[in-house]
Amino acid sequence: MAIELSDSTINKLVDKLITKGKDYSETESEQKLRNTKALLQNFWLLGNHLDIEMPTVDEDVPLSKYEISLYSLLGYRVRTKEMLEFVTSIIDRYGELCKQGTFEDERRYEVIKKLYLVDRRLTRLQLADQYDVDEKTIRRDERKAINELSIMIFGIDALNDVSKTRRMTVHK
To answer: How far apart are CA 110 and CA 107, in angstroms?
Structure first.
């Protein structure tokens, strides 16, 4: 059974689809900006970014294109340092809260710490053996800790992201 649509109706449908697509992509890109797991996965690289010595720029000489790009790099470094200091204080506070809670709360913090933050990081399987639990339990601990850290780092926006993710998985 074919449906006849006027050009006007087709245009309205296309506009609606484009608008919905834009809304979805904006939401998706906002969530990427608040990707706590990516932040944790790259935490040590970000820290090492700060340890590398930067060339100096002579302030008395007019800036060349090279020096302008160095200033840009210095800006990246300053923002990285501020973000790492903030995230480190959040992670420390999260550890304090977890240590005041149940054994499972403390394990969640230790899972995040040992997966992402220590020099000799462990695998999920190694952590499962260490805590004598299934690897799925470690994955659940990791996911819950990342959600909790997201809320502590990004506030209400992260809470909205978590609820959207839950709604999407429920509707699939």
So the answer is: 5
